[in-house]
Amino acid sequence: MLKEYQKKLRKNLTEAEIYLWTHLRNRRFHGFKFRRQQILRGFIVDFVCFEKKLIIELDGGQHSEQEKYDRKRTNLLEEEGFHVLRFWNHEVMRNREDVLETIYQILLNKV
């Protein structure tokens, strides 16, 4: 069931996910390898760099209604040693360079 949902998510990316993925895919982002819509610890995360244990989540309007779930999910992933970085979709589209710079700085500091 999770695999089916993963496939659906991969086919229906938001505009913000498409934008970010064009920068993260194929080691385009400073040589770091990212995967998208990855199943991890029973969850599907938007983007993950296993080398640096960084998860990037892009949130749309529905996430304002599921704050408690997102917080629990983030805590569980952080207990596994991952750093979870969250951006709103509109934030990615309006502040593209700032978002990319934030991701880069986190990657540099996760040595």
Provide a descriptive summary of the structure in words.
The protein has a 4-stranded mixed β-sheet, with helices on both faces. The model has no long low-confidence stretch (mean pLDDT 90). The radius of gyration is 13 Å and the shape is globular. It is built from 5 helices and 4 strands. Strand 2 and strand 3 form a beta hairpin. By secondary structure, the chain is an alpha+beta fold. The longest helix has 14 residues, at 96-109. It has one domain: Endonuclease, Chain A (3-Layer(aba) Sandwich), CATH 3.40.960.
Strand share of the residues? 15-25%
Just name the CATH architecture: 3-Layer(aba) Sandwich
Q: Class, according to the CATH hierarchy?
A: Alpha Beta
Low-confidence stretches: none
Given the C-alpha coordinates, what overall shape results?
Answer: globular
CATH topology: Endonuclease, Chain A
Strand numbers in spatial order across the main sheet: 1-2-3-4
Q: What is the arithmetic mean of pLDDT? A: 90
Distance between the termini: 35 Å
Biggest sheet overview? 4 strands, mixed
Kindly provide the radius of gyration, computed on alpha-carbon positions and rounded to a whole number of angstroms.
13 Å
Which structural class do you get from the secondary structure elements? alpha+beta
**Percentage of residues in helical conformation:** 40-55%
The helix count comes to 5
Number of domains: 1
Number of strands: 4
| Series of H and E elements | HHEEEHEHH
- Full CATH superfamily name: VSR Endonuclease
Keywords: Endonuclease, Hydrolase, Nuclease
Domain DUF559: 3-107
Protein name: Very-short-patch-repair endonuclease
Pfam families: DUF559
